[in-house]
Amino acid sequence: MGRTPDAAGALARAHEHALTWLSTLPARPVPPAASVAEVIAALGAELPDGPTDPMAVVDLLAGAVERGLTAMPSGRFFGFVIGGTHPAGLAADWLTSAWDQNAGLRQVTPGATAVDDVAEAWVLDLLGLPGGSAVGFVTGGTMANFTCLAAARDAVLARAGWDVGGYGLVGSAGVRVLVGAERHGSVDLVLRYLGLGAPELVPVDQQGRIDPAALRERLGGGDDRPAVVVLQAGNVHSGAFDPFEAAIAAAHEHGAWVHIDGAFGLFAGATPAYRHLVHGYEAADSWATDAHKTLNVPYDCGLAIVRDPTALRAAMSMHGDYLIQDAAGDPFEKVPELSRRARAFTVWAVLRSLGRSGVAELVERLAGHARAFADGIAGIEGAEVLNDVVFTQVCAAFGDDARTLDVVRRMLDDGTAWTSGSVWRERAVLRISVSNWSTTDADVERTLDALRAAVTAS
Ligand SMILES: *Cc1c(COP(=O)(O)O)cnc(C)c1O
Fold first, then answer.
1. How many domains are contained in the chain?
2. Are residues 328 and 241 in the same domain?
3. How far is the CA of 239 from the centre of ligand 1 (A)?
4. Among residues 51, 67, 83, which one ends one of the domains?
5. Ligand 1 pocket by Cβ (under 6 Å)
6. Same domain? 427 vs 339
7. Residue 323: its pLDDT value, please?
8. In the chain, which stretches have pLDDT less than 50?
9. CA-CA distance, 301 to 303, in Å (whole number)?
10. Fewer CB within 10 Å of terminal CB in the chain, N or C?
């Protein structure tokens, strides 16, 4: 037997390294300073023959990887759709690891289950979604889409007299899945997981919003298979929201299940100032969102929300004689995993810390910064904002595609901020996604200064 490893020492070192990282975020360049090979060289690739004290391991890890980290939690990281970590969520996440609860079973961890129950009710209340819906705490938007669409698939086939759990999909009538042409790629991915194949694409307007008349026409086109319609709250390029009221009405007239992918946009529903964007969304059957985007809890956390808890349970539950199951329902029956981290702790902590007004202010601040970016970019000679900036996403172009790509490259080389490129409506764009609680007006100004310099130099 070796010495007993010292938890206190390792945790103290981790605490110190974490504070150093957080305190250097405002000043450090956003892109990483070291390559994968350089980090491996600093770590050492050899598996040691014997033990190392955890404290030394923490020091080695922090020392070796830090130069290879992107400052994603920086207030000037505007790539992809990446939230920061609100301090209450980060601290709760540390406790989540220390407590190390397997959060699947209600009676085995009453503490985790209680927080799961409370956070579930708060999420529904804040978003104005039907009380009594089930909320599963999953890893992210992709798995939230998966979880909801598993319930959708099984429910629409059950209504058509087919038991997916008993017979699988082979021999069933099949399921039509209709989505707007600008859906997020994770929708296609989860349809593959679910054995449903590629979706049918419905035309969208200039901002990427589904055309409800086209949806209605396709649904009435004579294909009588059970249908699922996937709508979107927050297009990753334009930030646009589908016209929920009309689209949901069309879908429900044809008996379809309506799911909404609102990975970052669903939280528009948490603020009176932006609630009009999700008008009518509460009539859907399921909703997916990320907590690690707009809500700014640490990775990884998504929310799978299903109006009919029995449909979710039917898709996700199992039985094990050795488990201690509760008739009231167990948290694992709302998610694909059996064993699971207690993710509700971080969601509860951020909601408890911000309160109703704090969540609204957070969302309004993100969208306000996006507006400021749009205004700043519009004032740059030769620059053009391509989308209607209704929420947190901005797409800009700087003349032809070659020049836009050059500006994207110059911004990354400069390192003041992270704004990455994409292609939207067949044009190269520079994308700005404002998703971090800590972004300040000064961060926006500094980023615009860097952008002006990049455009001048290109
Ligand atoms: C980010 C995103 C997803 C996927 O979420 P993950 O948390 O990355 O799995 C799905 N849909 C939309 C609209 C997104 O922005």
1. 3
2. yes
3. 13
4. 67
5. 81, 140-142, 184, 186, 234, 236, 261, 263-264, 290, 302
6. no
7. 87
8. 1
9. 7
10. N
